[in-house]
Amino acid sequence: MIQVAGKQIAWREGMTVSDLLEELKDPHPYAVVRINQQYVTRPNFEHTFVPDAAEVYLIPMIAGG
User: N or C, which end of the chain is more exposed by having fewer CB within 10 Å?
Assistant: First the structure.
């Protein structure tokens, strides 16, 4: 199991950040995801694996002016 935004999500072998976001069906365009203490940027979502028992924090893009 992994924890995402306070919820327990089933983990599976080979799960990437992109797989996790697709499974969550969350429409927000996340720029960065933190897995435990490692920050991962969008270009690396497809190549970064989520380890079992990880704590994942979804960091949305923020625009301002």
Answer: C
